[in-house]
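User: For documentation purposes, I need each entry recorded in a consistent format: the amino acid sequence on its own, followed directly by the corresponding structure tokens. There are two entries in this batch. Please keep commentary to a minimum and don't merge the entries.

Assistant: Recorded as requested. Entry 1:
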Amino acid sequence: MTAFYEQLSVAANVSPPPGKVSAWQHAYARRLAASDLAGVLLAVGVAHWVRFGGLAEAVVTYRYIDYTMVSLVIAVVWMFALSINHSRSTRIIGSGVEEYRRVLLATLAVFGGVAIVSMLLKLEIARGYLIVALPAGIFFLTLFRWIARQIVVRIRENHGRCITRVLAVGSPSAVRDLTSSFARDPRSEYQVVGACIPGPIPRRKIEVPGVGEIPSFGDESNVVHAVRSTGSHAVAVTATERLNGRGIRDLSWELERLDIDLLVAPGVVDIAGPRLQMRPVAGLPLIHVEKPQYHGAKRFQKRFFDVTFASAVLLLGLPVLLSVAAVIKLTSRGPIFYRQERIGLDGKPFEMVKFRTMVDGADKMVDKLAAFNESDGGVLFKIRNDPRITPVGKFLRKYSIDELPQFINVLKRDMSVVGPRPPLAKEVLTYDNHVKRRLLVKPGITGLWQVSGRSDLSWEDSVRLDLFYVENWSMISDLLIAVKTVKALVSHSGAY
């Protein structure tokens, strides 16, 4: 398996030829097929070993069923299901949760089908075999794909390869927004390498803050020339008044001859895939944006997750809680817990509980230290080497142990496990109607802000991430954020 991923790394380092669809994606998809086959064979092999005590014999027969043949049939059907579910489509591999979702659906479909066939034909396939093979398959398939992603991400970050070069077509402001959005995530597949600006005034370049200069190649009539000059693999049409529906259609015909992908950015920002539905109406592809869901079944699911997760953490972490409380009491004067008013759901205040990490009376010292505030935006108060933090408090903050008592707030319905950062009352007073949408859901112990930089984030980035979560939250995203939080705590980046 190690040799396989080394080959993947070498293949991914090969830059795709200019003017063609990204060749690295097709090589990546082919190697994912081999990776999937290895995962499927490992899954049925582990099921054999656990259920029947080993693989010493070539054929394992139990209750007149040849399980070697059963395993081979399941493996073939499993690979076929992964294929017809387009789990290796170049449109979804390498980024986002859609790839994992398709792997999960294909796997569940296979084992659901096996259960139905077994019942109809009265095959009585051993349940223990299926119970082991199903989770083992999900584990190995997702693990191998995650490893493949990390290889590609490392190549992008270290060598600038495995990139899809994009030519942006649109107004200057739209091109800047698109370029900034791609550049905001260094792991992103797309990179804007040129632009065509429809309009009477020609431009030679577009300055994008934080990115640099993007060369311009004239208006929309020069797209083909710009594609060849920049070696682009895709053209992204974003907000523009001069390129109408017929113009986009004609452009798609031109790009089709060059084997270049056409992307259309609708200009809707911070809206996740589950809320977007494509509806063809009267020959027009309409994008329907679903309303955010904060009530009903989703809220019940979130509350169930909160209670279960918080109770498990408090119960299993009780020895840690008691030990931390004793250390704080013995090493500094003042209470064990720090209580502070925060603003929660619908703007209602509540008392948030944390382990005390600063000297007693630290709140009264804020005015004296105001000149040292390092927060970008001035709304928050953050100092990297805050003199008020105790030695024990510095360790607790480094690994976010000080936040464990907040799970009590979760049980009290004041907070959620995952959500926006809980704001202070004075922060909420500065909110405009746009930022106030953060208060539509309960604040969280962790969230997108926690797994994306924590205290290293600027005020604008913190708000953007919180609003994205509010607009698009789901149980799947909560679970992914909870998993990513563990990684953030281990790396302790942005914790001070």
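Entry 2:
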Amino acid sequence: MPRRVASALLTTALLTVAVAGCSGDTGPAPQAAGPQVTAPTPPTQATAAPGQGAIPAPRVPAGTAPDRAFAVGVRQLKLNRDGTRPLPVTLWYPAAGKAGGQPERSADAAGGKFPVVMFSHGLNARPADYQTLLTRWAAAGFVVAAPTFPHTSRGGDGNALDVLNQPADVSYVLTKVLALDARAGDPLRGRLAADRVAAAGHSAGGVTTIGLFTARRDERLDAGVVFAGTALGVGTAFAGAAAPQLFVHGEADEVVGYAAGKAVYDKVPWPKAMLSLPKGDHGRALLSDGAALRVVSDTTVNFLRWSLYGDASAKSRIPADAARNDIATLDNRL
């Protein structure tokens, strides 16, 4: 697809996100301003990368994830890519102390080395909107780094096309975050598993995440989690080493049609799964606690435990997590 056409389609798709609930507004969704984003669903048979006859195995070796919950610390980084793209970053991380309760600002890090998850927010949103989900990831043993993008965050200028610049932003932030592991005096010195990294994102952040495995492949990434994402503007040419992917999409999504997300999922050549919520909308359930969020958080936690820690027992728990309370269904090709 020509870049000009892709950009126009992306604008239509992402502008509807702004009015349909990417932000913290949990009220009823207004009618989308543009047409629903849909795409023909290709055959569901997983495809192998060119020159490969079978789906490749993940590169993270077998291991064991922490079997306890952690307290959660939170801190901010002030970053700026090229001096023109301010990227304040919220870091949630496993902290010393008693598990449970609210994240503690600048708390001491827990002992151990923890994988890193880069999270990209949706259009007209901010990382704090997703705190309930992201702190659960941190409590499970992950350092979560979530940049606030300069043009697509709440309070920005709303330039939806800037999403195409965000994969490079995420790669830049990842480099800076991983550097903390060796920085003298930093609270996260010696606490980051720099060889175990995932990217995740919702809506416009889902586009960003897909781009990190396609047009702007970051080879440091070992896994991805895409919430209500589409490949418009970034394509489906998945490249590089095998990186398992988990897609999460509401079948009643009023902004990014379910078929559009499923079409991208079908193109993934690596181990993959798709968690579908028959009554799920564009993702407001991600923003506050509830039965659907608990299913999503438990499923994603065990996916990350498997894909970043190599924990086979976590992988075996994913189907049960997904099936709880009949809220979702799972296409499991992991």
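Summary note for entry 2:
Residues 3-20+70-333 form a domain with the Rossmann fold fold (CATH 3.40.50.1820).
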